[in-house]
Structures are given as structure tokens and as C-alpha cells.
Amino acid sequence: MASNEIPDSYDDIVSLAQDAADGAQTHGAAISLSQNTEAKIRTDFINLIGDPTAVPPVPGKQGIFTAAKSAKPAKTLLKNQAERNARAFATTAVNILKPHLGTQWNSQWQAAGFVSGSLAIPDNPLPLLGQLRDYFTANPTHENAPLNITAALAQAQIAALSGARSAANASLAAMGNAKAERDSAQKTLYKRMSGLLAELSQLLTPDDPLWYAFGFDRPADGQQPGPIDDLVLTPGSAGMVYADWEDARRAARYRVFKQISGTDPAPVQVANAVIESEYTLTALPSGANVQITITAFNDAGEGALPATASILVP
Predict the structure, then answer these.
(1) Which InterPro entries match (predicted)?
(2) Domain 225-312 of CATH type 2.40.128.270
(3) Which of 138, 142, 196, 281 suits 307 as a labelling partner, its CA being 20 to 30 A distant?
(4) What predicted TM-score, i.e. pTM, was given to this entire model?
């Protein structure tokens, strides 16, 4: 019997919820669906994926998370650039102070913020910038305006680095919060689909075709592929027809059949192991009406509901 497990992945549960909402819209009243109605399904669905057609548009928790995730790299780049600028400022400051304080570290360098016995610029230059600002404020004759090394410019570096770090941290927090809200919305939709499955189990028989309308397999179907939906035939060049269809659940391969009106008394198989959900038929008689049938199969057998459509061959 088909298990009808609710999917965990975002794409799969969104696809299921869309089918479920459409099924509830069409058949909910007729089967007395009450706990998981179309309105309730769509509320949870839109909360997750959004609705750009609403007034005002609803971005959805997934869209908010995607935007926050997209914004983070730029903020991180700005922070990294601000840190590089700050270290470059400190490096230049060391060079112009050497004539005043010595070319090697000594106790005089402590006044400029170098208290660890080294003139190396630390990975986090922010505390050092504050010390350099105070040093140049107390020793204005040691500033070098042409090289942009002054107390005021040290303060400007502090402001730029602090602002960039704050923005990067805020971006990281926003992404974390958005992800938590997205995960919560997806969990809510998962619970909604689980509730719908339980409710349908009380309202439909295991072999009722309406299971398909809600995006589920019939419990009586077993492990064979589910139905094939939306077979679309498109004319190509002379004698050519393109067939395209939606993936059938649990399908491993597809078989393609043609039946030319007035020529084939029964469908003729033209492809036996199509992997993708599309196929191009060639060498068909122009002007003839042809019926195309697609069946899905896997190791458990062939699906019970093929897809069939007809077209006039170009």
C-alpha cells in the first residue's frame, strides 16, 4: 500500500500543499472537509511561500529568508574591507611614528597602544585605533595629514569599522531570525498536510480517485508509480511532435506509445525506458491525427493511470 509520507523538503512540501489546496477548493465541500479546508491550507501555504499578487504583496517566510541570506555576503564584504582599511591605517601610523618612538618596540610605544611587546597590527584593529586616536590627540605634532594619519581620521576609521561590523552582525542576526521563522512556517505547513492526510483517511476510501486531486496517492495503489499529469503535445517541424508531462511520483522510467488514426488498430510502443518527463516523436505522417499515451513504471510495476492526449501531426 502507498505510504503517503509527508515530505520534509521545501520544494516537495510546497508542491504537495499547492495540490492539496486546489483539491480542497474543488472537492472540499462535497466530501465535508472541515478541519483542513482550502482557506486553512492556503493560509499556511502563503505564510511560507508568500503571495506577490496580494495587495499589499505578501513576501512569505521563505522569501524573507532568501532576501536576508542574499544580503549577508555584501555586509560581510564591507566589514572585511573596513578591517583591511583600519589595519592599513595602523600600519602607516606605525611607520610615521618610528622616527618619534623608535624603529623597534620599546616602552614608549605603549602610549600609542602597542602594549604587547610587538609592533604587529592585531587581527582586531579596533582597540588599537582608539589608542592611536588618543595618542595623536595628545601629540598633534606627530600627525601626518598628507598621509591621512591624524586623530580625526583615526576616529573616522573607528566609526567606519564599527558601523560595518554592526551592519554585518545585524545581517547575520536577521538571517538567523528569518531562517527560524521559515523553518517554523514550513513545520506548520507540514503539520497541516499531516492533518489533511489524517482527515482524508476518514473521508475517502483507500481506492477513491479523489486522493489524487489532493496530491496524495491512493492508499490502495501500492508502490507503483502515481498518475501522470499534464501531458502536453506541441507540434514541431514536419512529422515531429514534442510530448512533455509532469513527473509521476515514484516513477523510474516512462513508456511512450503512439496510435495513428486509421493506421494503428492499437497503441504502438515507440520508447521503453525514457528517463526524463519529455520525449520527441519523429517520422509521423503529416496531417494524421495521432494519440500519444505515456505510462510510468518502476520495479514494483506499471502505474495504473497513464496520460493520453491527441494532436494533428504537422
Answers:
(1) FN3_dom, FN3_sf, Ig-like_fold
(2) no
(3) 196
(4) 0.70
Residue range(s) in the chain whose domain bears CATH number 2.60.40.10: 225-312
Q: If you search the block for the grid coordinates 564591507, which residue do you land on?
A: 78
182 — phi, psi (to 5°)? -65, -45
Is 16 within 8 Å of 237 (Cβ atoms)? no
Whole-number Å distance between alpha carbons of 104 and 116: 13
Confidence of residue 1 (pLDDT cuts 50, 70, 90): low
Closest CA to 277 of 310, 309, 245: 245
Q: Is 287 left (phi over 0), alpha (psi -120 to 50) or beta?
A: left
Q: C-alpha cell of 134?
A: 588618543
In which region does residue 145 sit, left (phi positive, over 0), alpha (psi from -120 to 50) or beta (all else)? alpha
Half-sphere exposure for 227 (CA within 13 Å, toward CB): 16
Residue 127 in contact with residue 134, Cβ under 8 Å?
no
Each residue's pLDDT tens digit, 22-67? 999 999 999 999 999 999 999 999 999 999 998 999 999 999 999 9
Q: What is the DSSP string of 196-226?
A: HHHHHHHHS-TT-THHHHTTPPPGGGTTS--
